[in-house]
Amino acid sequence: MPSSPARVRRAEVRANTILSPGMRRVTLGGDDLLAYPTTGSPDEYVRLFFPDAAGAEPRLPRVVGRGWEFDAGIAPSPMRTYTVRAHRPGEIDIDFVRHAGGLAAEWAEGARLGAPLGVSEPFAQYTPAASATRITLVADATALPAVERIIEAAPPGTRIRLFCEVADPRDARLPAAAAHTDAVSATWVHRSGNGRFASRVADIVLRAELATDGSESVWVAGEAAMTRRVRRHLRHTLRFPADKTHVVGYWTDNEAAWRARFDALGAEHRARLDTLYGAYADATEAGREAVLDEIYALYDSVGL
Ligand SMILES: Cc1cc2nc3c(=O)[nH]c(=O)nc-3n(C[C@H](O)[C@H](O)[C@H](O)COP(=O)(O)OP(=O)(O)OC[C@H]3O[C@@H](n4cnc5c(N)ncnc54)[C@H](O)[C@@H]3O)c2cc1C
Q: pLDDT digits over 74-109, tens only?
């Protein structure tokens, strides 16, 4: 059966629960999610399109390739990216980190039953390497929903090591699947990172023993400076196999300050970055890492 064209759907809040001091779960459903697809990728993510005010209708864009477009004259709705924590027929769960000053986080705090939200199709990211017998996961709270799905989806017998920083010890959470196996070990770094404390998880990962012989894969997601540090260690210190490495920056701490530093860059750096961003977009998956090396080297040199 041909799949229906990708579109942004109108979802409604079905439940809204506090999971822990730092995490809230919003269940989305409604007629438009009845045949909502899943990619099956454990860290699949969606674009969420928010209304201007709680309970108001969000303006929904048209899908164009992997992006989207609003009709001429329509003001774009604010968009944020979130992991699909769970997919059930007609419903998905999204786990929102609770933090101050965030449009999405604040929407989730106040979202009442029936409140509408735009939801894109899910996008796949990570394909676990079949040949790896151990997976190391490095995360902060934003990446816990994906961590939980990766653990749930791992083939029996896979050894999983988690290094995760949380602001509050009560935010440390593993899925029920992890309780029945000693194949999952977790190192929780409390009162660390997450926009509230200095981030310490990368220091711990830098001291951990990692197998570079292809038997181990490493998945890293969370705040951008933390993920960049771990990536640099994997790629440049350890020469970790690229096909066993998956690193994604999910958010930027104190983004306004980062943006101000970016906006203050001179014309030469801006032009160089534009060229590199273009090269990244055009590169093959394998070629992208080398372009990222150049982008991050430039970021490091100008304090970004
Ligand atoms: C593929 C992918 C999957 C993601 N999955 C999830 C997920 O499942 N759950 C989740 O909570 N997040 C997830 N994120 C991260 C989320 O998109 C960002 O945290 C986003 O910026 C939150 O939007 P906001 O409107 O709340 O804050 P924004 O309006 O974007 O930011 C406002 C301010 O809050 C700060 N800020 C942003 N996020 C945080 C945070 N988590 N903690 C503390 N300060 C913050 C910013 O630095 C900025 O100063 C994911 C990101 C990606 C790319």
A: 999 999 999 999 999 999 999 999 999 999 999 999
Residue to substitute in 41, 97, 117 for testing ligand 1 pocket (most ligand atoms within 8 angstroms of CB): 97
- Residue 38 alpha carbon to ligand 1 centre in Å: 22
**Alpha helices of the chain — where are they, by DSSP H?**
103-110, 144-153, 176-179, 201-207, 224-232, 255-263, 267-282, 285-302
- Among residues 53, 59, 103, the alpha carbon closest in space to that of 77 is found at 59
DSSP summary character for residue 99: -
Going across the sheet that includes 134-139, the strands are 184-190, 159-166, 134-139, 216-223, 245-251
Q: Which residues pair with 36 in a beta bridge?
A: none
Distance 142 CA to ligand 1 centre (A): 7
Ligand 1 centroid to Cα of residue 96, in Å, is: 8
The domain spans of the chain are: 9-119, 126-253, 254-304
Mutate-to-test residue for ligand 1 from 39, 99, 144, 254, highest number of ligand atoms within 8 A of CB: 99
Tens digit of each residue's pLDDT (9 = 90 or more) over 230-272: 999 999 999 999 999 999 999 999 999 999 999 999 999 999 9
pLDDT tens digits along 20-50? 999 999 999 999 999 999 999 999 999 999 9
- Report the complex ipTM: 0.99
Average pLDDT over residues 202-206: 98
* Euclidean distance between the first and the last CA atom of the chain, given in angstroms as a whole number: 48
Please identify, in words, the CATH class of the domain defined by 126-253.
alpha beta
Q: Which CATH class is domain 9-119?
A: mainly beta
* Cα–Cα dist 94/158, whole Å: 26
Sign, CA torsion 30/32/34/36? negative
